[in-house]
Amino acid sequence: MTAGTGVPPEVARSAIQWWLLQQDGDMPEPQRRAWQAWRAADALHEQAWQRIVSVNERLAGLAQPQQAAIARAALAPRGPARRRSVVQTLAVLAFGAGVAWQVERRTPWRNWVADVRTARGERRRLVLEDGTQLVLNGATALDVGYGPRLRRLRLLEGEVLVTTAPDSRRPARPFIVQTAAGEAQALGTRFAVRALDGGGSRVAVFEGAVRLTPGQAAGDALVLQAGQQATLRAEGVSALQLAYEDSTAWTEGMLVARGMPLADMLAALQPYSAARLVCAPEVAQLRVSGTYPLDDVPRVLAALDALPGLRVRSLTRWWGRQEVVAEAAPR
User: Fold this and answer.
1) Could you report the per-residue pLDDT of 38-71, keeping only the tens digit for each?
2) Helices (H), the chain
3) At 175, which helix (H) or strand (E)?
4) Which of 77, 153, 152 is nearest to 109 (CA)?
5) pLDDT tens-digit map of 135-168
6) Does domain 253-328 have CATH number 3.55.50.30?
7) From the DSSP assignment, how many helices (H) and strands (E) are in the chain?
8) Is the pTM of this model over 0.85?
9) What fold characterizes domain 124-245?
């Protein structure tokens, strides 16, 4: 637990993310319900949210011109640089310098100020100016850059399902999803890109084709066809694997596991869990199959706990962070 506020950094991070989403304008009803569910899920969540509300009210009530200008910036941030400064100030005022530092260390600021973001437990659909359709998974951040010669998405974290639309301009502009590992160029297609821990990206193609270009090995570009997936890393592309259509079930709130390694399954659940999900090395490759509701992670974890040889337990670390650990059951 954090001295001074009693709010763990992970909770503070989520609270500020929800505040940022509200600054973007009227929240869609599904997003508002997700925000309300997050507040109701834990007393610490509500405590963190009320601290932000309190800070905003204090800022809005300041009378001195200089302070009032700061207040207006905090309540209506515009632009990445300005928003970053405001969020830093808000984090310090609401939760103290110690928590603010941990929040910043765990979340790159470019993710906070991304053009499009989702919070944990939230999914979002949107249509871009050319008709391209996106579905964002939970805890996703991306920038949208449409210019005269190129259509580009920059995936900062999380996962996105893309259904590209033909470009009305002539010559047609390429459509590219850029990640930390390289680029995925759509060749008239429907595909998903997921940012992985360690800087890699998983790309799965369901219609058309996608050209993968590693960031540090452009000569090793590879074209994925429909039904194929691969991991893109800066130094190259992994061996091809089958891509199943039901791997997009997350867009409808479900997780379909086909002999999925337990470590991968917990990673897929993480965008829907406030607690950190940890997989012990000795069970990381345990294969799991079934269909699971993403919006009820405790229920999924209870089902995993019932598997032979597996134990799932919750821990509270000394600094207040919640963790759920999947490990081998004691004999």
Assistant:
1) 888 888 888 888 887 777 666 655 544 444 444 4
2) 9-23, 29-41, 43-60, 65-75, 80-95, 97-106, 109-112, 262-269, 297-305
3) strand 175-178
4) 77
5) 999 999 999 999 999 999 999 999 999 999 999 9
6) yes
7) 9, 20
8) no
9) Jelly Rolls (2.60.120)
